[in-house]
Amino acid sequence: MSHVIQDRPVRSATPATLTRGGLPRWAPAGIAALSAALGCGIGLAADLHSKVQWGLLAAILFVLITYTASSVVENRRQAKDRVATSMVWVCFVLAVVPLLSLIWTTVSRGLKVLDAYFLTHSMKGVVGFQPGGGVYHALLGTIEQVLLATLIAAPIGLLTAVYLVEYGRGSLAKAVTFFVDVMTGIPSIVAGLFILTTWNLMLGFGPSGFAGSMALAILMMPVVVRSTEEMLKLVPNELREASLALGVPKWRTILKVVLPTAIGGIATGVMLAVARITGETAPIMLLVFGSQLINNNPFEGAQSSLPLYIWEQYKVGSADSYDRAWAAALVLIAFVMILNLVARGIARWKAPKTGR
Amino acid sequence: MAKRIDVSGLSAFYGNHKAIDDISMTIEPRSVTAFIGPSGCGKSTFLRTLNRMHEVTPGGRVEGKVLLDDENLYGANVDPVAVRRTVGMVFQRPNPFPTMSIFDNVAAGLRLNGTVKKSELGDVVERSLKGANLWNEVKDRLNKPGSGLSGGQQQRLCIARAIAVEPQVLLMDEPCSALDPISTLAIEDLIGELKERFTIVIVTHNMQQAARVSDRTAFFNLAAVGQPGKLIEIDETERIFSNPSVQATEDYISGRFG
């Protein structure tokens, strides 16, 4: 009885040899080209109309061929590894294609009327379905509204995050976190309606850029709080302790040590929030009302903004207004992208230095 | 300059957990006192109660008295910020401020407290870096970031930063545990020089280090995991390492622990 176990042969985990068959270095690229060609071929042969179907076919073929080739030439573990890698590539391409297509469409259609005249003139005296006119009033409106919204939301959001990370304990902090989460989910139209009822209907103010900024600030605040909170949590506790142990008061520690260490991430977070609200249309429509004329004063009278301008122009429905809408969309994308680049610049410039 | 520390009946808590129990000891001015003992016995916690850093930890709470000369650190109207200016601290891992240059790191304590004129700042920084034996290595790159230095240099930078505010007492929490033997030697030499000016308390896991640098040694132990740490004995370092009065100390020092 007791000797039975010993009789069983033990399978060793050590392989007999350390070498194995391998696909050449160019195999993934080759398989990708092959499956793309096959995808197009099958698409043509089966007379599939949509190019999306061709692409999906190619993607599926890519994964399948990779697995087959690898399990024939190499072993199963290697095949699984290659399948995982090829899936990641497929997902990457699936994610990037819409982005590139969007940028391509906007740039190719937007460049038609985009010039210095377009950027420096308003729609004053231009009939909607005729050529001419420009985007200056909308660009100005967007800049002013977004700036005001940032001036309101960034300090409040920053201070809230500092409270939550550095001071907040117990039920108040939990409640604040909960309501910030709730605020993240507020639809922009609801924020617009809230300001409309309080500021415009109850207090009796007319439409203005500032009213729009307040609605945008409501949308921006939770994003700033969340991102700043995460950045502050990343600051090592040792730095706070080092500063406190030098006899630096807590508020100075936060101001001079914690915030400077996290400033790069905070700037990026604020800029992402700015990018989010720059494209908002609904609250602008309700509160800023839209205008064809230049209005420098965000505190009085209707203004325009880029998203609203795009919507208006597209609604007119003539070829010239379509051109203006696409050009304005390009301006909007460029505006957000420049803001992002600025934020990255700040982040790099302010980031903790590691050089010798 | 240096002050005497007189601890009586000190217990420290994390929430409801008692970390150290009823510790009393006297730490002489201008001397080096080493704390040794197994991990989790409360050496670092006790050290942090000496400059009120323990209460920075959420749930941290202290009972008992710590007299600095004749002033109770835990008295009614004592400002913890003032305590920390008097009792400086060096941590286990070097932690220079990453956004600041070498110069700014050393000047940080003074600048953030606003206690020194700009014109004097350069002198104080030079004196502190010389005091930490780092001046010759960094004098040509004071404007470079402190995080570019080696680990041992960073730790000496942190010591320079701590002594720049001219504290009375310097607490060191395993200052050499992240360093190589040569950097450790540099710091140990430095401790020997610093004790002329400061009262130094050092926590260490390295018993040879305790024997080399300290005048007096305190041995901490805990009865079991989860139990509070206790002070077993404190005596002249020579006696602790040659002829301790408690058996547990001898067991720990000779490696027959547990």
TrEMBL record, chain A:
Transmembrane segments: 26-46, 52-73, 85-104, 146-165, 177-199, 205-225, 257-277, 325-347
Keywords: Cell membrane, Membrane, Phosphate transport, Transmembrane, Transmembrane helix, Transport
CDD domains in UniProt: TM_PBP2
Localization per Swiss-Prot or TrEMBL: Cell membrane
Pfam families linked: BPD_transp_1
Xref: Gene3D superfamilies: MetI-like (1.10.3720.10)
Record's keyword annotation contains Nucleus: no
UniProt signal peptide: none
Residue span, ABC transmembrane type-1 domain: 139-343
Topology of the protein relative to the lipid bilayer: Multi-pass membrane protein
Keyword Nucleotide-binding among UniProt keywords: no
NCBIfam families assigned to the protein according to its UniProt record, in alphabetical order: 3a0107s02c (TIGR00974)
Role description: Part of the binding-protein-dependent transport system for phosphate; probably responsible for the translocation of the substrate across the membrane.
UniProt family annotation: Belongs to the binding-protein-dependent transport system permease family. CysTW subfamily.
Protein name: Phosphate transport system permease protein PstA
Organism lineage string: Bacteria, Bacillati, Actinomycetota, Actinomycetes, Kitasatosporales
From TrEMBL, chain B:
Record-level Gene Ontology MF annotations: ATP binding; transferase activity
InterPro entries: AAA+_ATPase, ABC_transporter-like_ATP-bd, ABC_transporter-like_CS, P-loop_NTPase, PstB-like
Domain ABC transporter: 5-247
CDD domains: ABC_PstB_phosphate_transporter
Gene3D superfamilies, sorted: P-loop containing nucleotide triphosphate hydrolases
Keywords assigned by UniProt, alphabetized: ATP-binding, Nucleotide-binding, Transferase, Translocase, Transport
NCBIfam families given in the database record: 3a0107s01c2 (TIGR00972)
Name of this protein: Phosphate ABC transporter ATP-binding protein PstB
Top-level taxonomy: Bacteria, Bacillati, Actinomycetota, Actinomycetes, Kitasatosporales
